[in-house]
Records
---
Amino acid sequence: MAERYSSFSSGSTTWLLQRVTAAFLVVVLAFHFFLLHFVHHAYEIEFLGSQARMQDLGYYVTMILFLVTATFHGVNGVYNALVNQGIDGKAKRAAQIVLGVASILLVVQGVRVANALAGF
Amino acid sequence: MSTQTPETETETESETEQPASSPHQERRLAEKRERAEREAAEEAADATKFDGETLELKVFRYDPEIEGKEEPRFDSFTVPKEQGMTVLDALIFARDEYDSSLTFRHSCRQAVCGSDAFFVNGQQRLGCQTQISELDTPVRVEPLPHQDVVKDLVVEMDHFYDQMETAQPFFDPDDLPEGELEEQRQSRENREKIKLSTRCIWCGACMSSCNIAAGDNKYLGPAAINKAYRFYMDEREGEQKRQERLEIIEQEHGVWRCQTQFSCTNVCPKDIPLTEHIQELKREAVKQNLKFW
Amino acid sequence: MSESYDRGLVEDFGRWREFSAGMWAWVFHKFTGWVLIGYLFTHISVLSTSLQGPETYNQTLSGLESLALVRLLEVGLLAVAVFHILNGIRLLFVDLGVGLESQDKSFYASLVLTGVIVVASVPTFLTGAF
Amino acid sequence: MYEHDVIVVGGGGAGLRAAIAAHEEGADVAIVTKLHPVRSHTGAAEGGINAALRDGDSWEDHAYDTMKGADYLSDAPAVDTFAQTAPEEVIQLEHWGMPFSREDDGRVSQRPFGGLSFPRTTYAGAETGHHMLHTLYEQVVKRGIEVYDEWYVSQVAVTDEDDPNERDCHGVVAWDVQTGEIAGFRAREGVVLATGGLGQAFDHTTNAVANTGDGVAIAYRAGVPMEDMEMIQFHPTTLPSTGVLISEGVRGEGGILYNSEGERFMFEYGYATNDGELASRDVVARAELTEVNEGRGVEDEYVYLDMRHLGEERITDRLENILHLAEDFEGVNGLEEPMPVKPGQHYAMGGIEVNEHGETCIDGLYAAGECACVSLHGANRLGGNALPELIVFGARAGRHAAGADMPEPKIETGPYDDAEREELGVPVGAPDGDADAVEPAADGGEAVDADDRSPDAVVEATAEAERERIDTLLEREDGVNHADVRSDLQESMTANVNVFREEEGLKQALRDIQRARERYQDVYVADKSRTFNTDLQHTIETRNLLDVAEAITMGALARDEFRGAHWRKEHQERKDDEWLKHTMVSWNDGEPELWYRPAILEGDEQTYEPKERSY
Ligand SMILES: Cc1cc2nc3c(=O)[nH]c(=O)nc-3n(C[C@H](O)[C@H](O)[C@H](O)COP(=O)(O)OP(=O)(O)OC[C@H]3O[C@@H](n4cnc5c(N)ncnc54)[C@H](O)[C@@H]3O)c2cc1C
Ligand code: HEM
Ligand code: SF4
Ligand code: F3S
Ligand code: FES
């Protein structure tokens, strides 16, 4: 007999967030690429330029959001992929912890970089 | 399908009056002639068993009990090619003529019992619904992937049945009309909406084709989700059961596992738009959950 | 699923060859997603040089940019990102239940469009690289 | 040994309904079936379910149509019970969620069907049986009824009394196809056989490969008579190359039959000047074959069924499945071309003799569905009358088997002393009259040790005999392949016991069957595996087909008249004085005996006067 899944854990929130962040990322990622490769060429990037952009509050906020959403989206995506492969029990718990810690580190470090550039 | 006699002019005017001249008729006549010729030829040349066109059938063999078959292998059978021959016909021929131990499930021969889903030339198909003429030769027939093989083409279906039952595949209305002979009302639109989902014949082709179901044993799978859809969308369904069912399909190994690979939809012999139904339930789950906030 | 023995041919070969559009889309999307999240980690660590001051930052960046390999990798990154974006949009539509019948066509369209965009951007990306 | 109150053999419409009914009576029920329930052939039914549901219709009219269609060979108590109960059973299905086609006001749709005086055929697209089967199975799942699927039942465990009327049934013996385990199933209250059709006795049939008449043959060898076996329905519209059925719904919706001259022959040649294509099935099937025999058939084989004029919208709405069938199995686009059709074996009106509670003459043994003969369909079944039979009599059998109180039955069962008997003068039964010689083990009813008659011992002894029989079969190293015997049998049946029957042909068929029986004694099973041995299963099924085919032919030879589906070249009229009686065949431990039981035309509410049957 199949087990009846009793412990109710909804996946709808993360599923929805994955889509919402994706929709947001479409815009920001395109913008990001366009700005740093076509408007400014990557090989011309200098600290001063980066600093100038980052000091704009709107840009700063966008980049932080970009960082957070991309981290969530990417890490949640990886987690989903693992669950799709059927990981379970301990392995699943481990994946949650490792991915969780990694994303916190990533976001913290990212914010520090942004702050450094913006000079906060 | 292969022989379309270009006959457009005569057809338009004499469609109903003269069915005798339809392309089908001509095709059958041609077939019959061909068959007669082939039979005559067969008798003439006894030495080679089949004179007409033949095809090679490569069939997966395995039997845990029989020496020499414990190791999976492929056997080749030469089968005379006949018009309108299906993969199932070819298998039956091979079994009855060469090796009566060749084992596969089949029953209805008309795509309703769902017994004979095989992996034919790399795709999940019903043997009885697949014309040999549409396939490249040699035709390779294997048991459904991602399921334990019991013997030859027979796979273990219990897991599939379990998943179907997990979706609570039964009707549970809140209340029924008074009076013994009163039916519940259902609009035509609503019946139309659930129509395709009610066609499932439990063949398991979809489940076997899904990479996610292959990796995640707990994934309900497209057929079970479609079953849930069939009841969830039925306007006669009771509110209580509808909620319960939603909870079943939206738990971790429910609809969210679907990565919209569409292979289930591609292989379903009953043309059920499985991916669409799964997606609709995902949205439904999100909507319902947003409501609770 | 617990396989009681090795089903060799059935499980390994003959399968990827038969993958349908939707399955390939899934494979590619997965792959590009993993590359992107990998890149995000790398990217942040490269940018972290800014914490050591402007000079290190500038040096690292221009140092990297002067390598032809990095330039090529950037083109690859663009390809990966563009595909992930386009197919991501396709998936968003699928999630909304729009255009399910042409899901295979939209996958091919994403592939072609990715190709076109990448080829068109090669000059910009490789300026001064060689 | 497994043990339950009620054992239902078969998971088709009749079996599932019986199991639900028994469960509702509070019994511990198990279904034992050789196919998973959803694979049963009930799923192939297309057209619909008859029930008098609407104003302007009445159960009396339904009963009358049924009796007329049956050419007055039905038993009135069965017909009345049937027509009275069908409406509530159909509504019950709706309450269980069956997705019927609907009218604008949301009520279930009904359509006209052959031989009906009112459009009372309730349907769900052209897949009515599929939906009915799944709806019933869903209710079985809901109730948690135990299902032993892919268990092949090969014997009933019956006590060894001389008189079949005194035998008791204590269970069945079945064998797990997947593992080869042979086990007894003890039934504390009753065994219900619901094993479906026997179309595999013929080679052009709408029936599934699994429809091998197992239940009929098993009950027969245990001592229950087979009733009206010669009454085989040939469906007028099957696809020539496969036998796949094109539903009567096509004609119900207005489909038209043409011959090769483009003539609408049902009218032009006067086969049925009132109802035309919608005449009863036997009438249409004979008309088609007459056209073919007189040279107006297409390609000397078939005629055309045309539905193009109905328009794409109506076709896809109500007959969509037909488009798929014609396309997949005949390569014809029903929207653009007429479909080729010819008659094919479709349904067995006869079967295990039972009364209106589904009881056979053996205590504790019941039968329902196509394998049973309550004598509802008589000499010809009306389209859309089988599915309601499954639920009406399935439920009654299940209920009675579970011990429900039901009134005294009006239909009698079992052989009786002063019954009229007949000798055919052609050898039948076990070759040389020696039942023991017929293959390795006994034929039910014979196997039990006389000392210990406790139910458990009866079941265990029968299981042991079955184990021996199967061992013997598997030990043989060479011999005859059952497939050869089966195909010879099928060919002979189709050649000689088809729509048109002649005395010489029928005798030939009996000789062929004797020969087949002799060959069957040397049958062997090449596959020695205990795992999923379909070779073994088919071998045993072939034995069942032999018994069933023989009884069909015996009845056909005896009945020298033309009634319903049974046409005799030498006897072109219905002989009511002589033949308002059922043919019964008893196995008689290897020496089949033919006898008769009068048909009952007197019901509680109405008496049926045989009238000329014209459409
Ligand atoms: C193509 C087609 C179309 C039809 N259309 C209509 C229609 O439109 N309207 C209508 O009223 N009737 C129709 N009929 C007739 C009707 O469908 C059948 O008479 C009816 O479905 C038989 O149901 P059943 O439950 O008796 O048997 P089935 O559904 O055949 O079930 C038999 C069951 O018994 C089991 N079984 C058999 N032998 C054994 C064994 N030895 N051991 C264990 N289990 C066993 C099988 O596994 C199966 O589960 C149609 C029939 C056919 C063939
Ligand atoms: C730019 C717009 C983007 C869009 C439209 C987008 C869209 C999507 C969508 C819809 C999914 C879910 C697929 C599914 O569950 O079926 C997904 C998965 C994923 N995305 Fe994105 N994404 C975008 C950007 C990114 C970025 C910037 C990253 C990296 C940080 C990323 C990493 C991932 C990963 C790792 C997955 C999981 C892949 C897998 O299934 O293994 N994506 N993306
Ligand atoms: S959904 Fe389609 S493929 Fe899947 S089990 Fe049902 S019929 Fe088969
Ligand atoms: S193949 Fe699998 S991933 Fe979804 S669309 Fe079908 S269930
Ligand atoms: S044999 Fe029934 S679906 Fe193919």
---
Amino acid sequence: GDDGGKTKLTINTFGVFGYTDLYREFEASHPDVEIVETVSEYNDHHNNLVNHLAAGSGAADVEAVDEGFIAQLKATPEQFVNLNDLGASDRESDYPAFKWSASLSADGRTQIGLGTDVGGLAMCYRTDLLEAAGLPSDPAAVSALWPTWDAYFKTGRDFAAKNTGVKFFDAGTNIYNAQIFQLDESYYATGTSDVIVGSNPKVKTAFDATAKAISDGLSAGLVAFEDEWVTAMKEGTFATITCPAWMQGYIKENAPETAGKWNIAEIPGGSGNWGGSWLTIPAQSDHKDLAYELVSFLTAPEQQTRIFKETGNFPSSVTSIKDSAVQSFTNPFFDDAPTGKIFGESAISLEPQYQGSKHGAIRQAMEHGIQRIEQENQAADKAFSESVDEAERAAR
Amino acid sequence: MTIATPAHPAETAAETAAAARETPRRRRKPHTTFRRIGRATVPYWLIAPFFVIFTAFGLFPMLYTAWISLTDRDMLRPGAAKFIGLGNYTDLFSDEFFWNAVGNTFLLMAMSSVPQLAFALILAHILNTRLRARTLFRMGVLLPNITSIVAVTIVFSQIFGRQFGLISWLLDTVGLDPINWQAGEWTSKIAIASMVIWRWTGYNALIYLGAMQAIPKEHFEAAAMDGASTWRQLWHITLPALRPTIAFTALISVIGQIQLFTEPLLFDNSPGSVSGGNSHQFQTLALLLYEESFRLHNFGYGSAIAWVMFLVTMALAAGAYFVTRGTSRLTGGSR
Amino acid sequence: MSTIELRDVTLTYDDRPTLESLNLVVEDGEFLVLIGPSGSGKTTALRIVAGLLAPTAGQVLVGGRDVTDVPPADRDLAMVFQNYALYPNMTVRRNMEFALRLAKVDRAERDRRVTAAAEILGLTDLLDRRPKALSGGQRQRVAMGRAIVRQPRAFLMDEPLSNLDAKLRVRVRGEIARLQRSLGTTTLYVTHDQTEAMTMADRIAVLHDGRLQQLGTPDELFSHPANVFVATFIGSPPTNLVPGLLSESPGTGSLELRVGDQTVEVPAAIRAGLAAPTGTEVTIGVRPHDVQTEPPADPALIFDVEVDLIERLGTETLAHGAVPSGPPTSPETCRFTAALDPRTPVTSGGKLRLYAAVDRLHLFDSATGETLRRRALLAAA
Amino acid sequence: MSTIELRDVTLTYDDRPTLESLNLVVEDGEFLVLIGPSGSGKTTALRIVAGLLAPTAGQVLVGGRDVTDVPPADRDLAMVFQNYALYPNMTVRRNMEFALRLAKVDRAERDRRVTAAAEILGLTDLLDRRPKALSGGQRQRVAMGRAIVRQPRAFLMDEPLSNLDAKLRVRVRGEIARLQRSLGTTTLYVTHDQTEAMTMADRIAVLHDGRLQQLGTPDELFSHPANVFVATFIGSPPTNLVPGLLSESPGTGSLELRVGDQTVEVPAAIRAGLAAPTGTEVTIGVRPHDVQTEPPADPALIFDVEVDLIERLGTETLAHGAVPSGPPTSPETCRFTAALDPRTPVTSGGKLRLYAAVDRLHLFDSATGETLRRRALLAAA
Amino acid sequence: MTGPTRVSTRRSTRGSGEGSGPLRYPLLFAVVIISAFPVYWTFMIPSRTNDVVGQLPPPFLPGGHFFENAARVFDTVNFGKALMNSVIVAGSITLSTLLFCSLAGFAFAKLNFRGRNALLLVVVSTMMVPVQLGIIPLYIEMQELGWGNRLISVVLPTAVTAFGVVFMRQSVIQAVPDELLEAGRMDGCGTLRLYWHVALPALRPAMAVLGLLTFMQAWNDFMWPLIVLNAENPTVQVALSTLASGHYRDNTLVLAGTALGTIPVLVIFALFGRQIIGGIMEGAVKG
Ligand SMILES: Nc1ncnc2c1ncn2[C@@H]1O[C@H](COP(=O)(O)OP(=O)(O)OP(=O)(O)O)[C@@H](O)[C@H]1O
Ligand SMILES: Nc1ncnc2c1ncn2[C@@H]1O[C@H](COP(=O)(O)OP(=O)(O)OP(=O)(O)O)[C@@H](O)[C@H]1O
Ligand SMILES: [Mg+2]
Ligand SMILES: [Mg+2]
């Protein structure tokens, strides 16, 4: 509504977008606009967004959407404003291809969101724990240990053989997902709604490799993002962890006492992306143009650079990524690792992967399989076939 | 879980008779004066708020849901709903996830209701003795009912942690292996059942305690003089006298457990998961409903699940009603 | 069969004594009724005997054995409760044999005893019913049956008739008394109804405020109440109480009783039986049935009643009213009730002159409330 | 003050009539007691009068006006309930003035009436207490007070004494009767206790199975019961019933009464008052108080009682036992109770010869149970 | 036996439950500790700093950081407004539930009207409707009514509940004798006055119970408020969800908020606990 003569522009986000100062700046340049931000918990935010879209009202003028939900939401592009109509097409060239296409409708016409950040993949590791197992700890040397996943798992077996009482990685799902994120085609046949989760050999390869690693005792058997995973991070019971850009923040804030013990190496098997968000404008918004102004302001390269410096959210703008401020950024918590460079390269070089509308549900079904192997010692083949069944049911 | 109401279905018939007493059939002319009419409508005014609010905010959504359950509808595409008749229902009956959820729901119902009521009985039996600080104990056992869900979630996730949970830690200190509560088919149910039991035992105990205090003291004394120990008294005196109350609490607990949602949702603390475990080992009907509707956006299918739940609950309640009424007739009155 | 003995039994709730140093012996085979107003401690005493309550001090003996620390079940006493305390979920038969089952009495013996008891009590046809399906009187008999089958050393009964209606109460009290006499089982019976006590008891113990007031046969209590309390408690309608003065006549040395403005001489025979009063003020008890409308031959007190209520019971007529009391100068009155022959002409609002023979009067010390009758005579009575 | 009239009032529950065509007039200022055993329909009748229940058929008139369709509050009747139905959350004063407040009686008047009523009932000091803090008798008085302050046209009372203990009941029944007489308010009073009915009533209506059995003064009911039911219901202990044969002697033409092996002639005076029996079999009612141990001058029946229970009440002694009944050839017996002078020597197990004067007998047709006394005489009595 | 006047302290009914014997106090203490543990935890954790969270064994004793963490709650979210809103929401739901449910319960228990039993059956069966799926239609409805993001949309749907009606009906049957109502009617009360002067005073314990249960449920409800309200106008539970939205798990912060949100409930419980317990037990007497 409008009150006090000012247009109230609402924006719903989750987690830490770090926009507060930017809102004030925007308001300064738009004296008749008042921005109201609502921050919710990640799942609550997305559930509410879906509820509000389903009900036809209640959504904010600008809604943040995470990578885990974007595929599903872009499947109903009619629920969102086509940002291309408002001039977003100009921005296409500034985004890595995968980022731009991830929020583009299946027919390629409707762009439902502008990217805010990306989650380029790397591998974080505990220098002290690798050293304890007689392995190198320098990032370059460590990266050299695992150019491929096979090499990574082999290193893991060497690590395990040293019996340091520490596992090689935290959770099977993180390793599995990282491999999936690197594929050019995963659960859906590109450009279609055909689910190929059961027939895509690359999926099976990733699944089996992860299963083998688990049975080789490389996994700490944690469930990612559970409380215990956090505890384990503090206690140092695993040596490496799949590390999208935003994971730095997780580690730093959840386990501040481990400062200086971490470093960052490249991810095995080439680059990949996990996470990152978009700002979208629901079709039900009453202030579409104004909302777009805000979205383009917030996602502009210079703002992305600024947010990166303030919060560590890695920019999704090529301009911003190439900015020297980003490129030269180092993270003292991670032993001054050149994080700007590591994540930037990973992001720019990434090939887009097509995701169908039930991608999230399929991913969860596959994760269930990995976890069954990890938690319940289920046989890999059985876990895979059950997961594929579940995935296909979810996608029906 | 809904809260227990101390209403006993078997009473309804008797009360109906008692109420009918006020106006036995009359052979005289109908009253037509305005005053009488005014008076006759008063009861309807008194119950109107409930029915107005229920119609607006309960019945409308319910009927809407009933309609939705006959369509194939994606949550986000309200315009693209297809009428498919009973299609969702027939799909449901061939859906192994549905049957898995049915099995889990009833298993959890049994695992939580039976011990919960049994513990409540024992607790009430103990509370029914001459005690110091009686009110304090009684208030203490009711605390779980007023504890915030957030606190419950956090505490229980710390208790039932896979590796670093309190129980696993305790097991570890005595040299036993930790238990991966969430993963196991049974351990997960035990954990969830214990959350339910924790939450409702005290409340039921107080209800039983109330009923126990209505048992004449002389019955216990007579039994004591006849040579019955206290446990025999519990068996021969307390239990029979509490039968209607037990039947009632069992019914309420069963209705609550059919709709069991919060505990399994919270127990699955890997963020965002609503599938009730990796193998759906603790996915209840309500959780399946939630997953189908809000995660997979199969609004029609979810609505069908909701209606099946509703009908099952009604059937169970009706069954319980007739069973208790039947037994009460056999034993000559339920009180 | 067995005696029951209470020795110096005291029970204190929250520092308020409910029973004070109670001494009581129920003889073998005797029917002893414990009577007293509500709250006097009757139930308490009974429950102490039963073992349901432990005394603060004192001992309970059953058959000469100290059972103070023996649990209820092992005292071999059977109790009949006011509300019968029948187990509602068991049939009459199960109710009756429950104690025997717990005592592991074998089946044949159980059946034998239950059948016999049911026979005696006329319950044979009801054995398979549940208590709910029985009338009040029948329930009462089941409660009795439950006591009988145990063949206990004594029966304890706590107001077993108070839940019955008036008619039934009269009938059942007869049944119980007959039964007790035929079984010969020692019985301690609690009631607050003096009619019940009078009709059923071999001896009556009157309790008031936790203290024993008098112990004796119904007749003793009625004819020679030990104090004002017993006098008013036993007998219905209750004894009228009129203040009076007892003094030796300065002239003749004879003992004179003054009530209002009349003075009668106490005959020597009666005087011999009197203890000296602590003062001259006495309370005179006059039973409503001990007055007559015709002047008797013996010396008599005259009561002029201003009748304000007539109750015609058919068999007799009760006239209630006020009589002048106190010295003639003061206009004080006190309430007075007379039980008259139903044919006596009397109307409400009228005056009635009544005579009470001096030998029918009960004299009490008005300070202590104790009777002026000599102890020796009391004991002998 | 006002009459209350029930005209052909019928009430049917589930096709079972609870009241059948009841006709009853409570005269202005009269104290009428409705008595009957449990379930006879007393409460039902009272609630119909109060307007709490609508009759299936028939009319209720108060002060001559048909109030059948008038709501309870507008009938201007006050009711005293069995358990008093005091509002637990209000003080005694508020309880008493509640109806006046609702009727918008002004404050001064309310205070005046409450003060007056409290005075009469001795409640002045209790006005600020709540019902919980009152004893049973006090509560009863508050309930009365609540009725009095309304100054209603009539009082309706449903067993107002049944929650009091025996002693208190006797006292309070006197108080109520006195109060009613002094106020002169028409009163319809329900009880199942015949003593209450006898002592309090101007007239008594006996109800049984929803039908009126007899209506008359206590004396009429006691002396001339209309049927066996009334004979046994009124009077305590209940009338003894003995079977007999009534026949005209073939020789003399005189009327003979045969009981067992004795035959007595019915004096002409009595015979004149008798209606012809439908058969020869009669039921003879003998009141326990109408027997004597000495042979009377008048012709009398002799009862040889095998005494099996003695109840000594102090004021009288009840002897219970069996008397032979039926023809001399058959050994049938029936139960018999006699109320004797307390000084009569009698022991349980002994024999007792009793005489009942023929003019004291009540004769009933044994087929219908109706009295053989002529209607005309009944009405005149 | 040592003397003639042996004084003993035994004074117990050897009746029910006596033989649960010496174990009953330890047992009861255990039960109460288990029951109270999460509440204790809610206050203990926020009194520590975040680094102890997840330690094994966990710290069992409180530290000194409660107010610091509580202050952070107020910094992070609009907790004052949330508390205010929750009080308004839970308060109005409780009041309206008590009023409407007792009215309807009274009517169902003591008044006689056509269709009563059928209507009662309707009420009872509505208790069995699973709530989760009504949410979307209900939400649409609220938006249509223009009540989105307004407290009234949280209050109205539960302003009167079937459970409450059935509960109150049962309480009326038990607590209000017919004779009392008849006395009231003879005194000149109409139906509403009977309700107000006669029934209501007798229903106090039952109302205390229903009131607390309703208040608790309204206070702890999060699913519906989360959907219909946003963080600009939150209830406590909505605000708590915002507290949990950060990158990492700040249990001290979340539980500090929870603790603050629990205090009003604990206060109510402490004030009315006695009555409530009495009421629950009374309500069950004839259950
Ligand atoms: N558990 C208790 N705690 C405290 N006082 C008690 C307890 N039980 C009984 N009393 C008190 O002891 C006294 C005697 O009680 P008791 O039940 O023996 O009386 P009673 O003579 O049987 O009376 P009634 O005729 O009313 O049954 C009463 O004043 C009562 O208040
Ligand atoms: N609501 C009812 N439905 C069916 N029958 C009823 C109802 N109320 C009373 N009755 C029957 O009506 C008859 C008369 O009942 P009522 O209460 O008038 O008896 P009463 O003479 O007052 O008895 P009591 O002395 O026990 O109070 C009884 O047989 C009773 O069972
Ligand atoms: Mg007693
Ligand atoms: Mg009655």
